[in-house]
Amino acid sequence: MPVEPPREPVRGGGLLADRFGRVATDLRVSLTDRCNLRCTYCMPEEGLAWMPREQQLTDDEVGRLIRIAVERLGVTDVRFTGGEPVIRRGLLGIVAAAATLQPRPKLSITTNGIGLERMAGPLRDAGLDRVNVSLDTLSPTRFEQLTHRDRHADVLKGLAGAAAAGLTPVKINTVLMRGINDDEAPALLQFALDHGYQLRFIEQMPLDAQHQWDRHEMVTAEAILASLEPFGLVPDSVSRGTAPAETWLVPGYVDAAGNPARVGVIGTVTRPFCGNCDRTRLTADGQVRNCLFATGETDLRGLLREGAGDEAIADAWRVAMWGKKAGHGIDDSSFLQPDRPMSAIGG
């Protein structure tokens, strides 16, 4: 049978489809490139040159783009990222505005946990549904070595505050680094199980500002799973769908909601899930990225500030997603690391 040629993106209507049949329904919104930590796999100890304030989307501009994504483009999940999104002054208002949209999207945030103890309740009241908190070690000493900040206790308080506020399931994101914290996988999983959190290990990706990522030094998904063998993990029978994490059940444990406890591994590099990717990304300065590793962007901020209508902006977004590649291409000899580091793209 002849192969049907891919259709061009629909103008004046349609979802965020690409040439390979994927549809983006998960929007990652970076609210700032600034952060109050200096994680070694993200940025140098001295920090980076932050984005000028006038280049950053205003609260109203962020809200408008989220509304267009939900009402016109079929987005069902919105996750706020950074940098560190909790330091965005207008965060509560942005979340509250998104929570009023119809159909109401699921709302989550990825945070380093600092300040979350104070903000968890207000975020829940504003309409946030859940949180992902980055935690790479249980050792305060190692935490300071990894982040160049003595804030480990604040992250633990943030996790507890999120759980108390009902921002569940509370998920922990962990990046293991060889010779630094790669011996902590079992302890981190036990910590998560004991507190009813859901742990997700993430392979270190080539998104550091220093461009020092080395695949041969990366702790792989296979190595992570091998270190967790004492837990007797059982493959999860529930389909992962478009979720980035492969999950396993942990026999003998339940989560905070009484469901079977799970641990996940996001093997972006060695177990890519590009074929099922459903994400579209918006940077803090209003650029659409159709892939975390994209080397090109589409400027929506310019359209906003030139007075473009909602449908013109939606059309530009559709075209941006139509050009998405089949995969991230990390294994290709021609792969180029994005100019923007993770902190300027958004998780």
- By oligomeric state, this entry counts as single chain
* Share in helix: 25-40%
The shape is globular
Query: What CATH architecture do you see?
Result: Alpha-Beta Barrel
Could you state the order of secondary-structure elements as H and E? Answer: EHEHEHEHHEHEHEEEEEEHHH
Percent of residues in β-strands: 15-25%
Tell me how many strands there are.
12
Structure description:
There is one protein chain. With 347 residues, this protein is of the alpha/beta class. It has a single domain, classed as TIM Barrel (Alpha-Beta Barrel), CATH 3.20.20.70. The protein is 28% helix and 16% strand. The protein is built from 10 helices and 12 strands. It has helices spanning 59-73, 91-99, 116-126, 140-147, 152-165, 185-195, 221-227, 300-305, 310-322, 342-345; strands spanning 26-30, 77-81, 106-111, 130-134, 171-174, 198-202, 234-235, 246-254, 260-266, 279-282, 287-289, 298-299. It has a 12-stranded mixed sheet with strand order 7-8-9-6-5-4-3-2-1-10-11-12. Strand 10 and strand 11 form a beta hairpin. Helix 1 packs parallel to helix 2, helix 1 (59-73) packs across helix 9 (310-322) and helix 3 packs parallel to helix 5. The chain is globular, with a radius of gyration of 20 Å. It starts with 25 loop residues before the first strand and ends with a helix. Mean pLDDT is 88; it is low at 1-5.
Short description:
By secondary structure, this protein is of the alpha/beta class.
Produce the secondary structure layout:
Blueprint (H helix, E strand, L loop, with lengths): L25 E5 L28 H15 L3 E5 L9 H9 L6 E6 L4 H11 L3 E5 L5 H8 L4 H14 L5 E4 L10 H11 L2 E5 L18 H7 L6 E2 L10 E9 L5 E7 L12 E4 L4 E3 L8 E2 H6 L4 H13 L19 H4 L2
Parallel strand pairs: 1-2, 1-10, 2-3, 3-4, 4-5, 5-6, 6-9
Antiparallel strand pairs: 7-8, 8-9, 10-11, 11-12
